Amino acid sequence: MCATPASASRSSATAVSSTTSSPRASPPYKVRYVQVTLNAPTAPLHDDHVGGKGHFDATIEGIKAMKRHGVPVVGCCVVTKQNAHLVGEVLTVFKELGVRQIALSRFSPAGYATSAVATLLPSRDDLMVAFRQADAFTVEGGAPKESAMRISCTMPVPPCAVETEEIKGVQFGTCPIGTSMQELALGPDGKLKNCTLHRTAIGGVADILDPSVDMLALLKAPEITAYRKESPEFCKGCLHEKTCMGGCGAAAEWVLGHARRFPDPVVFQHVDDEFSARLEAERADPKKRRLEVVHG
Ligand code: SF4
After folding, report:
1. Residue closest to 127 by CA, chosen among 149, 94, 104
2. 282 C-alpha vs ligand 1 centroid, how far in Å?
């Protein structure tokens, strides 16, 4: 469940997957919406993406149950290398279920999912296929107003990789770290991070409940205040340097080793031969085709 509208949310990890078919009576507070992820139009691929059999059917039943009980539902689909060509079919499923607001995300490797970067990281062509299909469901993309969807992309998409200006109906945003729009992430372990996807704890603080931690000082730490001052070498001189800042720094940190010194892996796969070759080698290795737990 999200506290902010899907259009303002940037994290691919905010989706809630409902597994109940009988929500209880309305709580005493107003639920703005429940965001539910569907990563394929059919069970095998969806279940493969989320890690187990039965999730697709439970998700569909959950959406139907929430709709029956008047709970607003926002759909989410995380675009991957494997499902990009099926985004239109996923949106059709949502549409048939009466879900018209969509948080379209894109796979951005972080944490556990870093080990699946080769199999799940979409290429620029994959993303264009997905976004063009999504665009057709919006008014700007030609859908009738009465049945059109509102679609926002919740992850930054570097415009050097994807011609976002061609996709008129999908709302694209940029990474808000270091701006007044930033939403810090506090993990269950007490670590404060720049967002839910980042690896490094701000100030190196292991637990903000430690009485010696000065929270006000932490909020002025260079991880936040200096974040926008450094750009990847590749991005120097780019027209979009100040807004795009190289795309998702969290993904760059997890996959390439530094949040500010490398551009988003979604870009880097197309400009760095070594990284591209590494992905190709992993794709050819059957042991690397499934998610593995990443420590650290
Ligand atoms: S800032 Fe970097 S990643 Fe973003 S559009 Fe420019 S070159 Fe691409």
Report:
1. 104
2. 26
Spatial CB neighbours of 269, under 8 Å, sequence gap ≥ 6: 121, 123, 275, 276, 279
pLDDT tens by residue, 11-55: 333 334 444 445 556 667 788 999 999 999 999 999 999 988 999
Beta strand residue intervals within the chain, DSSP E: 34-37, 73-79, 101-106, 150-153, 170-172, 185-186, 192-193
Residue with tokens 């999504």: 134
Cβ–ligand 1 distance for 247 under 6 Å, the answer yes
Atom of ligand 1 nearest to the CA of 232: 2
DSSP state of 61: H
> 249: Cβ below 6 Å to ligand 1?
no
Atom of ligand 1 nearest to the CA of 244: 4
CA of 58 to the centre of ligand 1 (A): 39
* Segment 104-156, tens digit of pLDDT: 999 999 998 999 999 999 999 999 999 999 999 999 999 999 999 999 999 99
